[in-house]
């Protein structure tokens, strides 16, 4: 079980804050236009073939369309007292300096700054925070998985997680909302950092091992294993990687151009096998709202497409095997890392940004 309330470096089962090189903001980016869009009803983004199976809302649901997360973050910010803002609304680049990335890019395994929602927010504000979280997830099933069936792992409850704002969401400036708890770091940034999916790296996990039906992310491992089962003997040898990908900051930094990626090249697979990999992508994105999933696929396309991805399976020699075939599986491409640890329990680290 993880014990990292003081964010000390952790040897095995917990994650330390992550540092990431920040993507460059394009010169033609128009944030004011984006915020005008957010201020109205959230418009649907172009359909992505991998996510086309999602059902459309009926007319009655459409009439009750909830506010987008970005609008709710602005609303939450407007309700905070000066005393609350001094702790919960931090500068955009808070924590940066001496080669360190801003704290908003960290991946945390407990409430950021040990500040729990139930200790920092009024009841109405707590409901707003809850609405923000629900707004960045696809549906009730996505919420069930992210909340680990409502258990929140060692956090124990939604109210024992953390909620912080970086920057200034009151106008058209840059801002990011960070939600943190045990085995969980999620974010929403109103496209303040364009070209970075989800607004930066994410982290999720569950206390049960990834082969267990009790693990809420077991379906993702099943889907990855289905790809391995479909490979022939020669392909399986290519797919298996030696050692361990690790879980610290360096494990999800993007490789430099020309640097080899472990695993099998998706572009070398048959059409049927590539379709199985597409199902892996669909499943790992399924908990999150459509606009974020669409942005991921846009970034993948801009970075060269699914054909540039590699899928690798690791049997970590530093941990004993107990009949489970793999300790990690990893989907990696230019500007894309989905690093999934299966045992002894699930840790998954995500980093996706435009690099092309």
Q: Provide the number of structural domains.
A: 2
Unreliable segments (pLDDT under 50, ≥5 consecutive)? Answer: 1-13, 15-63
Average predicted local confidence, pLDDT: 84
Largest sheet report: 11 strands, mixed
First-to-last CA distance: 39 Å
Secondary-structure-derived class? alpha+beta
Shape: globular
Order of helices and strands: HHHHEHHHEEEEHHEEHHEEEE
Helix content: 25-40%
Our Rg estimate from Cα atoms comes to 20 Å
Task: Determine the number of helices (DSSP H or I, runs of at least 4 residues).
Answer: 11
Strand elements, count: 11
How would you describe the overall organization of this protein?
This protein is an alpha+beta fold and 356 residues long. The chain folds into two domains: 67-206, no CATH class; 218-352, no CATH class. Helices cover 29% and strands 15% of the residues. The chain contains eleven helices and eleven strands. The chain has helices spanning 31-39, 59-63, 69-79, 82-88, 117-120, 123-135, 140-146, 218-230, 233-239, 271-285, 290-302; strands at 89-90, 162-167, 175-181, 184-188, 202-206, 240-241, 264-265, 310-314, 328-333, 336-341, 346-352. Strands 1, 2, 3, 4, 5, 6, 7, 8, 9, 10 and 11 form an eleven-stranded mixed sheet that branches. A hairpin with a 4-residue loop joins β10 (336-341) and β11 (346-352). α3 runs antiparallel to α6 (123-135) and α8 runs antiparallel to α10 (271-285). The chain is globular.
Helices and strands in order:
Blueprint (H helix, E strand, L loop, with lengths): L30 H9 L19 H5 L5 H11 L2 H7 E2 L26 H4 L2 H13 L4 H7 L15 E6 L7 E7 L2 E5 L13 E5 L11 H13 L2 H7 E2 L22 E2 L5 H15 L4 H13 L7 E5 L13 E6 L2 E6 L4 E7 L4
Parallel strand pairs: 1-2, 6-8
Antiparallel strand pairs: 2-3, 3-4, 4-5, 5-11, 7-8, 8-9, 9-10, 10-11
Helix pairs in contact: 3-6, 8-10
